[in-house]
């Protein structure tokens, strides 16, 4: 049994697309590992106390940098 030429060509296109997708995923994962300058290492949450009717902001540190004191 032989595979038609159009199916082989289609299979090559699919394999090339899959390889490109995997390459993109690997590059994205490597990029996510790097610490970006200017990226905030904290989260800000708005709060409201209904008893006193006061508003406040809660700052939470989310990233601890190695070697930073």
TrEMBL record:
Protein name: Uncharacterized protein
Cross-referenced Gene3D superfamilies: 2.60.40.2690
Highest taxon, organism lineage: Eukaryota
């Amino acid at each position: 049994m032989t595979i038609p030429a159009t199916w082989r060509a289609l299979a090559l296109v699919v394999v090339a697309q899959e390889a490109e997708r995997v390459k993109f995923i690997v590059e994205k994962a490597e990029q996510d590992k790097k610490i970006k300058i200017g990226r905030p290492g904290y989260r800000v949450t708005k709060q409201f106390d209904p008893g006193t009717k006061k508003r406040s902001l809660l700052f939470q540190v989310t990233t601890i940098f190695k070697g930073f004191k």
